[in-house]
Amino acid sequence: MIFRKLRNLFKKRKDFDLESYLKKLSINRQDLIKTISDIDLDSPINAYLTLAILLKEKGEYYKSLKILERLRKENLTPYEERLVILNLALVYKAAGFIDRAEDALKEGINRFPDESFFYYELARIRAISGKFEESVELLEKASQLKEEFYDELIHTKLYLADRYIDEGRTDKASRIVRKMNLKVPVPLLYYVLSKLYYSVGEKEKGYKSALRGIKLSPKHAYPFIQVIENFGELTYERLKEIIEISHFSLPAVSKGVEFLLREGNTDEALSLLDKYSLSGGKFSASLFETYLKLMWEKGQRKQVVNKVIQYLDALKKKEKLFKCENCGYRTDNFDWVCPRCKSWESLEINSEV
After folding, report:
1. What is the model's pTM?
2. 64-76: per-residue pLDDT in tens?
3. Closest by Cα among 158, 183, 152, 153 to 29
């Protein structure tokens, strides 16, 4: 009855596949949809399970939990029990009952030690709680069962190494980095290497690592520039090099303009912004306002009046500095992982104008 109503609800959309939609709701990793078994739409248990999942998506956690907790008492097949426990943990987590979510995931691991998603979800909770060592151990097990979790393991290890550096435990950070066997280099690796080298006094290696990271991913130039600046190694000559290798990326140009204005070199700052504009670069709200002010101060008033009227109010309303290119989440604080969709290295300067 429930599935019949769901089919009737969505039947007007010819491109809509109910089975695929339910699989998307049942896990957090969208890239693993194809590896999940098809959902049996004729099973009564799955009917209630689907209803619980839809209620969770709607934010009605109490109703969803009531259904799932009731299902736990039914005579379930191993496959059904696995799905119920996993979704029960996900709803507990979404509702803020972290302890209960952990208990459900631990039960899932005990009952189904070959199911990677239990280790993965528990690892995410551990990471959110700041327990990265435990998260790494769980992800190692998850990646052994399903290689798609290897990328998550690598980034979490690097996150742990970064934390060790901040705590002054550079020896532990160094051991993590040395043992890593990356198939493809990632920007976060060079970020960690840059901080590590600077922390132990190897400034030239720190700078070169930062340049490699920027060259690999120009849109992530911002955190690398911060590292160089935090260790007192940022000069305008180096900023010019960074601007060049990042192909006039917004973070590099913004920092270059900020540096020049701090030195009182408004002509050079305006020249840099002119080049950035000609290159087709997208402006952040604050940088575009700076550009307009410099043009105005230099007597180029007729060229900016119309742009001021058209854009300035809209630019000032921009609330968040960073935007996730994967899910659109906006935040003022940079992180290597999106707080909403958990995609790695997806936050970039919000350049919508």
Report:
1. 0.75
2. 999 999 998 888 8
3. 152
